[in-house]
Amino acid sequence: MKFPLIFFFSLVMGNVLAQDILIARNAQISFFSETPLENISGLNKNVTAILNTKSNDIAVKMQVVQFEFPNKLMQEHFNENYLESDKYPAASFTGKIQEKVDFGKEGTQTITAKGILNMHGVAKERTLTGKLTITKTGANLVCDFTVPLTDHKIEVPKLVFEKIAEVIAVKTNFSFVPYEQKK
Length: 183
Known about the structure:
Blueprint: H1 2-13, E1 21-34, E2 39-52, E3 57-63, H2 72-82, E4 90-97, E5 107-119, E6 122-134, E7 139-148, E8 167-178
Antiparallel strand pairs: 1-2, 1-8, 2-3, 3-4, 4-5, 5-6, 6-7, 7-8
């Protein structure tokens, strides 16, 4: 996992200093599928996100198989039948915050990030809206959005079509701290 993470860092970091980088390790992404027949939820607590405070670039990466479900059978179906995590092990978002953010000033503001959501082998341009809170120790970013399954060619068999929503609600929570290079 280290080599892909190094490549991931290079996408955002470029030639910037470490103090310009905020990192969220063990960030969280959850999703919820609501239908009259069944609700399905999953939580991934092992997401990595990087925010370049100079360029406003943001990158998020997660391993799909790390989603946990209340029901192990749901988890198995999610990985094998829908997200095909053996074939498409990672999902990511790379983009740029559109607003000018003063990372030296504490407070909360609504931001939009325009970029590419890559999931299930399909890259799709997206504009996501969230709340960015700047603190003394870093920043927190919360974002809620939806993902239509058809956008990422995730097929639901007709037999279980009434148990899985066509549009999935996604919630993110990233707690960023300054990146420290290992010596």
